[in-house]
Amino acid sequence: MTSNGICGKIGVTGRNVVMQMKRMDRSILILLALMAMLVVAISGCTPVVQNTDLPPDNTDEVPEPVTEPDPYLVLVNADNPLSEDLVPNLKTIQGNFKLEEQAADAYLAMKAAAKEDGITLLVISAHRPYATQERLYKNQVQKLINKGRSEADAAVEAAAIVARPGTSEHNTGLAADIVTPSYQNLDPGFAKTDAGKWLAANAHNYGFVLRYPKDKQDITGIIFEPWHFRYVGVEHAARMYEEDLCLEEYLAKK
Predict the structure, then answer these.
(1) Residue 164: which of 151, 155, 176, 172 has the closest Cα?
(2) Contact 94/178 with Cβ under 8 angstroms?
(3) Sheet arrangement for strand 175-179
(4) Residue 228: phi, psi to the nearest 5?
């Protein structure tokens, strides 16, 4: 074989090797590209697991404070009865008469102020247990029956004079029937006495309000009782007095 023939064969073989290496390089590149795409695809499809135990990221939100209802504004009427088991913390204000402790201190301060103005206040009813209220109501029903009312009519009419058991403010220990030694009748005439006028004008300064005003009977459902005063606290009493509001109206505005 001539040298040209040998060189020619070597040249052909060399080109074949180069071509094979190029094909291998392309294959490797393609394989690497496929592997890279697979890695991206896998990482992109992997779900993100959230830690459900962590609180939501709402650090900018400030939770609203929980406000407890004011116990001195408790509404007691035919639609809002009290629990039969309610027993307030009581303090004696006169003889056997007691009021809730804060109301009692306020009453004693009011009584002392009235005395300085020449007015003598006399309590003839304060806290009443449920059983006492029940007895008073039944007695009032019987009085009306004795006057000729039917039992059904007497029950309705009596409720406007003496609250049904569980619906009386006296059960709370926040209410007192206040008169004066020279006039102890529980009737509208007390409003014309010096004691009645003094209470109407000054009771709010000590946290008490005239609970059943003459012009609010349609709202309270109770007849005019110028002797019945209810403790609500000085701030609330002042606003109710200034705006001429009964407790139902005042609570509706809050």
Answers:
(1) 155
(2) no
(3) 122-125, 175-179, 228-231, 208-210
(4) -95, 115
DSSP codes of every residue in 127-192:
---HHHHHHHHHHHHHHHHHTT--HHHHHHHHHTTSPPTT--GGGGT-EEEEEBTTB---SGGGGG
Q: How confident is the model over 210-239, as pLDDT tens digits?
A: 999 999 999 998 889 999 999 999 999 999
Q: Which residues are catalytic?
A: 225
CB neighbour class for 247 (10 Å; exposed up to 12, middle 13-18, buried from 19): buried
- CA torsion through residues 97, 99, 105, 107, sign: negative
E strands along the chain, which residues? Answer: 90-94, 97-100, 122-125, 175-179, 208-210, 228-231
Give tens-digit pLDDT for 17-69: 445 555 556 666 666 666 656 554 555 544 444 555 555 555 566 666 556 67
Per-residue pLDDT, 184: 97
- CA dihedral over 161, 169, 199, 251, signed as positive or negative: negative
Tokens found for residue 86: 């309610």
Pair type for strands 90-94 and 97-100: antiparallel
Above 70 in pLDDT, residue 10?
A: no
Pick from 181, 29, 47: nearest CA to 115: 181
Q: What are the tokens at 203?
A: 């009771």
pLDDT given for residue 130 in this prediction = 86
* 72, 232 Cβ separation under 8 angstroms: yes
Rounded-to-integer distance, Cα 203 and Cα 178, Å: 11
Question: Is the pTM higher than 0.85?
Answer: no
